[in-house]
Amino acid sequence: MSFSVSRRLAAATALAVAGLLSTTAPAALAVPTAAAAPTPPDIPVANVKAHLAQLQTIATNNGGNRAHGRTGYKASIDYVKGKLDAAGFTTTLQTFTSSGATGYNLIADWPGGDPNSVLMTGAHLDSVTAGPGINDNGSGSAGILETALAVSRAGLQPTKHLRFGWWGAEELGMVGSKYYVNNLPAAERAKISGYLNFDMIGSPNPGYFVYDDDPALEKVFKDYFATVSIPTEIETEGDGRSDHAPFKNVGIPVGGLFSGADYTKTAAQAQKWGGTSGQAFDRCYHSSCDTSANINDTALDRNSDAIAYAIWTLGAGTTVPPGPSFENTADVAIPDAGAAVTSPITVSGVTGNAPATLKVDVNIVHTWRGDLVVDLVAPDGTAYRLKNSSSNDSADNVVATYTVNASSEVANGVWKLKVQDVAAQDTGYINSWKLTF
Ligand code: DTR
Ligand code: CA
Ligand code: ZN
Ligand code: ZN
């Protein structure tokens, strides 16, 4: 067995034990200066609960669950699709096969907006086989459904194109969302400015957690909760465990909200959020008792309103056209466990300093990206760390977009991408990299 295979085995074991999944480098979405954005609506929580009641009835009438491959899932998809078709959305059913059964993703596009700048919102609609999955994840599915219906009621005409997705077979390993992303041409992926994920937003002993994957998207949700004086915490339990992961893995900025699963609420959290300390956020997680009684209405309401706030804010902002870009596509070999190598880009004709949101697109071919340390080096020699090494990120390649605050650097001059392989075994090369001002 070659070392790299045993190395992979060790890493896989480590990941399995730690329950961690590697994630790619962060990519921040620069929230553009918004035009006069229309006021986000209040989402009537009664409407959201009415959708949950329908999903409960569907589960009750279909063997007690809404799981992939079961009749309850297809009935759930048909319910959501019917509401969206009636509200003027362009809907598409995407089918796939998993574990020998047909799976369904429902994609709904709101006509209009810039087709080259898509804001996508998603939630998995499937439950586990053990129960109806009303909090996991009827809550996220119903929250985005009612927000989509509010878009229709408002006749919203956002700057961006709005797309919604209800994913199948998430409980089997994000199968539906992976299928969607993997089958989306690169040119279509590039149009998605951000993906917002909502998986469990009505937990009975709720917390208020915000995904911290993308600073700009995180800020939008934190701004909302500040308006209702609700303190939030960074969501860390679900890194890589829900449908935002496939989008993040191809460099699309992701964000979202979470109200808690089987982790236990601490006394400090109960102090600020109410509820019961020493008890799980959702004692019925993946259980038969995840019914319509397993919902905290206040959390469902606040999170649904936050979804609307984010879509109205991010969707209505003007699209800031990108500045000039400079690229180097020369391959540069990276010595295994060796000295750092650099790839230069000479920037000219750009007045003043670089922006606070300097975009760095990196494409490195490598068979174990955890070996790599990647820096951007400004013309004056200042280094900006883009990626640290990681012993448990055994995936291939670094294909990521980084946003660097380079506002203290003069734009013109020779910029360098500096890459070092710091661990033995596995090799690769810099394939290309690009700076966009
Ligand atoms: N909803 C769970 C996955 C999950 C567990 N913790 C988090 C945190 C944030 C998002 C998702 C999750 C499931 O579908 O199994
Ligand atoms: Ca509300
Ligand atoms: Zn689940
Ligand atoms: Zn879930």
Topology:
Blueprint: H1 3-18, H2 45-61, H3 71-86, E1 90-98, E2 101-110, E3 114-124, H4 134-154, E4 160-167, H5 175-182, H6 186-189, E5 192-198, E6 209-211, H7 215-227, E7 233-235, H8 244-249, E8 254-258, H9 267-273, H10 297-316, E9 325-328, E10 332-334, E11 341-347, E12 358-366, E13 372-377, E14 383-387, E15 398-404, E16 413-421, E17 428-436
Helix pairs in contact: 2-3, 2-4, 4-10, 7-10
The protein binds D-tryptophan (DTR), calcium ion and zinc ion (2 copies).
Give structural notes:
The N and C termini lie far apart (about 45 Å). The chain has 2 domains: about 20-315, Zn peptidases (Aminopeptidase, 3-Layer(aba) Sandwich); about 325-435, Jelly Rolls, CATH 2.60.120. The chain has 10 helices and 17 strands. The model is unreliable at about 1-5 and about 15-35 (pLDDT under 50). A hairpin with a 5-residue loop joins strand 13 (about 370-375) and strand 14. The chain has about 425 residues and is α+β, with helices and mostly antiparallel strands. Helix 2 (about 45-60) packs antiparallel against helix 3, helix 2 (about 45-60) packs across helix 4 and helix 4 packs across helix 10.
